Amino acid sequence: MAKKIKEINWDYAPSLESTSHIEVKEKYELFIDGKFVKPSSGNYFNTVNPATNEVLSSIAYANEKDVDNAVKAARKAYNEVWSKLSGKERGKYIYRIARLMQERARELAVIETLDAGKTIRESRDIDIPLACNHFFYYAGWADKLEYAFPNRKVESLGVAGQIIPWNFPLLMAAWKIAPALAAGNTVVLKPAETTSLTAMKLAEIIRDSGLPAGVVNIVTGYGDTGAAIVNHEDINKVAFTGSTAVGKIIQKAIAGTGKKATLELGGKSANIIMDDAPIDQAVEGIINGIFFNQGHVCCAGSRLFVQEGVADVVIKKLKRRMDSLIIGNPLDKNTDVGAINSKEQLDTINKYIKIGINEGAEMYQASCEIPKNGYFCPPTIFTGVAQSSTIAQEEIFGPVLTIQTFRTVDEVIQKANNSPFGLAAGVWSDKGSRVFNLTSKLNAGVVWANTYNKFDPASPFGGFKESGYGREGGMHGLSAYVKLK
Ligand code: ADP
Predict the structure, then answer these.
(1) Are residues 326 and 237 in the same domain?
(2) Ligand 1 mean position to 242 CA, how many Å?
(3) Ligand 1 atom showing the smallest separation from residue 253 Cα
(4) I want to staple 366 with a disulfide (CB 3.0 to 4.6 A). Which of 127, 232, 322, 340 is the partner?
(5) How many domains does the structure of the chain reveal?
(6) How far apart are CA 155 and CA 165, in angstroms?
(7) Does 361 share its domain with 381?
């Protein structure tokens, strides 16, 4: 164990978000052609609360036959209804979904927290409002496609197969479904196996919205269900967010098929603190970038670069702030760091922590108490990390931060860009010119200046290199779902 700088005792009375207003059924079926249907295999799998290890519900396991039914329903809805509807009419449906989600925001936030382990603060203040905003934003574009792409003839693609991960379950569903519908496509979506619940709630909302049957179909299952979507011959577009390993499999599978693809994959994003940065804000930005979300963000600021002159003070303040973090029940509004999404993910994170120690880096872990049940990992930093070390190169997807120092701007650009990934980066400096110089030279799809992890439906998001291609969000997100002539 690493040595502690000082024991700090932060006591708060629990402030639990109520669960009395939510309904989680014992079993969830597949949402195909506007109806909830049983999986043809009759198989179900459990979804658990990673903070308590308690089973929340059982979820239908879709096989190739179910995926085929979903794609057929989506094709029929595309040919007979959705592609014939005016943009204005499509927009009305998308607005209606957004409003219904907003009405049920508290329920969605609590279910997201139960199923994913993320803090209620995050699901209530970030995930759910942003998910609603994506529907609102793209509803506005549905009848304005000719302005998004002036002087071009805009056509939809057809049926989109969409596969999403477990880190922002409802938000990722919104990122994928809203632009696809606005541009006139129909959808078959698969949530991640550990976080299907809010997608099934969204299915209920979509049914209640009166959206024509088959326009959105939601099939639950594991990787093989995802593969059945990718490989289905009547899919026109694959939109995937997940690991780089699966992204590569998908890219191979669709090569030569004419299917369009957007892949939003892993990251190992650099968070750069210059010596003239506002230090306290930067320390809060580091915490926000990697610890508030258990490191479960593909763009997490997982590699910290601090200019030598301020390294000692930044690390000292960072350790002190880490010791004040509250880790525990994600439903408690005081909790800063929630549960790791699954046992598998916790095992992966612990494997990397061991590698870091074995590679000779020095570890420090927050002194907060860890709950006994469930899957938790204390915020962890490593100093004395070599550029080539595994923990600085590979995506960990957990609350583990590597810290390196640098002397010059050129050195940090070179170090930050020395990664197979290129999803995001953060720059902290008081000088605009320094910020612009760095942001223009970092190979990252998104660069934040004096902030981190800020999202808006109007701004595009996506990566370079092994972080994938294509953009989601904003007008760029629309272009992924249209053919331009
Ligand atoms: P993570 O490592 O973050 O769990 P994955 O890439 O394994 O990410 O999973 C992201 C999504 O991709 C999940 O919905 C998962 O079920 C799905 N998936 C996994 N393997 C495949 C595959 N071979 N083809 C299509 N989808 C897959």
Answers:
(1) no
(2) 6
(3) 24
(4) 322
(5) 2
(6) 28
(7) yes
* Structure tokens given for 309: 């002159």
Give 305 Cα–ligand 1 centroid separation in angstroms: 31
Q: For 154-209, how does the pLDDT look when each residue is reduced to its tens digit (9 = 90+)?
A: 999 999 999 999 999 999 999 999 999 999 999 999 999 999 999 999 999 999 99
CA distance linking residue 238 with residue 250, whole number of Å: 9
CATH number assigned to the domain comprising residue 302: 3.40.309.10
pLDDT digits (tens, 9 = 90+) for 24-39: 999 999 999 999 999 9
Identify each DSSP E strand in 143-214 by its residue range: 154-156, 159-163, 186-190
Answer yes or no: do 230 and 343 share one domain: no
pLDDT tens readout for residues 296-317: 988 889 999 999 999 999 999 9
> What one-character DSSP code corresponds to residue 186?
E
Which of 172, 188, 243, 246 to mutate to test ligand 1, by most ligand atoms within 8 A of the CB atom? 246
From 17, 122, 264, 466, active-site residue: 264
- Ligand 1 atom closest to residue 246's alpha carbon, by position in its atom list: 6
Helix axis angle, 169-182 relative to 128-141, nearest 10°?
A: 0
Q: Is 299 a catalytic residue?
A: no
Q: Are 345 and 398 in contact (CB under 8 A)?
A: yes
Q: Is residue 330 part of a domain?
A: yes
Contact 301, 452 (CB under 8 A): yes
Co-location of 134 and 244 in the same domain: yes
- CA 182, 185, 186, 189: dihedral to nearest 10 degrees? -80
Q: Is residue 3 part of a domain?
A: no
Residues 255 and 285 in one domain: no
The CA radius of gyration of the chain, in Å to the nearest whole number, is 22
Give the domain extent around 148: 27-264+464-484
Catalytic one of 132, 298, 299, 377: 298
Sign of the torsion formed by the C-alpha atoms of 101, 106, 109 and 112: negative
Reported pTM: 0.94
Catalogue the E-assigned strands of 2-135: 27-28, 30-32, 35-37, 44-49, 54-60
Residue 239, number of CB atoms within 10 A of its CB: 27
Residue 459 lies in a domain: no
Cα of 79 vs centre of ligand 1, distance in Å, is 29
- Distance between CA atoms of residues 146 and 92, nearest Å: 18
Orientation of helix 64-80 relative to helix 223-231, angle to 10°? 40
User: For tokens 């289905």, what's the residue?
Assistant: 232
**Residue 359 belongs to some domain of the structure:** yes
Q: Distance from the CA of 253 to the center of ligand 1, in angstroms?
A: 14
Q: Is 122 a catalytic residue?
A: no
